[in-house]
Amino acid sequence: MNKYFLCFLLVGILFLSSCSLVRGRTGIFDDSATKIDAKIEQILETIKNNDKKALKSLFSKQVLDETEDFDERLDYLFEFIQGEIESWKRTGGPVGNEIINDGHKTKNVCAWYNVNTDVEKYIFLIRECTTDTDNPDNVGLYMLNTIKAENKDILFDSPIIGSYKSD
Q: Which domain holds residue 99?
């Protein structure tokens, strides 16, 4: 009896977790959280090292081609972040979607982070296209928004770098 109950329980857990994957949300077999956390680590490392070229390389070609004054916006970001980065914590997401239409597949993911320096607290919002089978120029970061934590009410006003991409 216990074997059947255990098998039923495992099948139920697998079924429920797969439902969230179908809807584009993070399930137990989806690695979106790991990947987006690795992306914030890359972003913060470039800021620590004042490496604008490395940060620029994380963005999609589409964003680089379409964003006016991209390099000036990078300069602003590097000036905006004050102090040494001490810690970060994901506070929202990952939220994403995956669309498969006639063999064309796109996947986007978004997450929010609290980032603390020895001087200030910030909120980072990052959005990334992780897959686009028809247009690989879309793959990469397409939005990075950074504000001081005390101004959290204006997070969605406008991105520092990138653009709001309609999904």
A: 31-162
